[in-house]
Predict the structure.
Amino acid sequence: MRRLLCLIVACSPAAPVPTVSVSIPIARATVTPPIAVATSCELLLAAQHEEIAKAIAASRKGDPDEWKELTDAEIYAQPLGIACHAFHGGIWAVAMVGSPTLYPRWKGISVDLGAVAYVGDKRMVGTDVYHAGYGADFTAVRSRLASDYDGDGIPELWMFSRTDGAEGGHSDKSGLYTAKTDVTAFGPTSTFADFGEPIDVDGDGILDLPTSAGIYLGTEVSCEGKSDEDAAEFVAHAKRDGTFSLEDDVAKAFVKKKWCPAPPGAVKTARDALCARLWKKPATKCVPWDCIAESQNKPQPPGADRTCRARIESATLPVPFTLP
């Protein structure tokens, strides 16, 4: 059972671990204080596993024909992102909000996940919900401990999910959460459109936040369905006062090292156009693809390019800084 449990949830080892008193009223499971953090994580994850097992049993009973060619293990093997992260003095959990839903015909499971913090004898719950599991494409929630940006002794928690659309495109959801009296979004990140997994880009021991800075780059035009987009690569540099900067020297150095070291010699993609924009170079010239002509099976204008519109848009976007 332990092997199956670790397939569907994220097991975060923490050794050595402190002792913390927690009450975990998840899936009717109770932890009697005081208890070691590692044990609390084991019980919490086991309670989540129990809820999923009960949902599977109920679904099997209600729709036995749908389960003829589906095993429990096929459901358990889907990495939803349920997780428990121990830190000195407590636990961050990514736990189910409500009950899971089973889709045996499509061999799928769907859950909503949210952030829960256990510190001392307090249980603090967030209101943000992340979908995981069955959908147009399978969605798994990622999470990890971030730095203790506000210096209160509790590291913030990062969560992320990407949902692919049925007709193309995708949407990202991310959050950095802090625990005070409740779990809430960490204030200094409230103006960010999104951010990826925290990384320390300048080696100062504080994790920084990769972000699109609200800039999404188009790719090739799709005249049927939604055209895809790629997030631009900037970083919100974490400063020692708990704030972040998108435009200081560290943020600029990240972009120059990562993808835009100098003005591009030729602008062939939306990313090239954005790089040229950062270096204050002239906008690209090209001929946009004509979707009306395509729908009517008519010839495209001479030199028409499916990436042209995305390049033009990228060359005029507001950017957090310019180079050098």
Observations:
- Residues 1-8, 11-35 have pLDDT under 50 and may be disordered.
- DSSP finds seven helices and 20 strands in the chain.
- The CA atoms of residues 11 and 97 lie 19 Å apart.
- The longest strand covers residues 108-119.
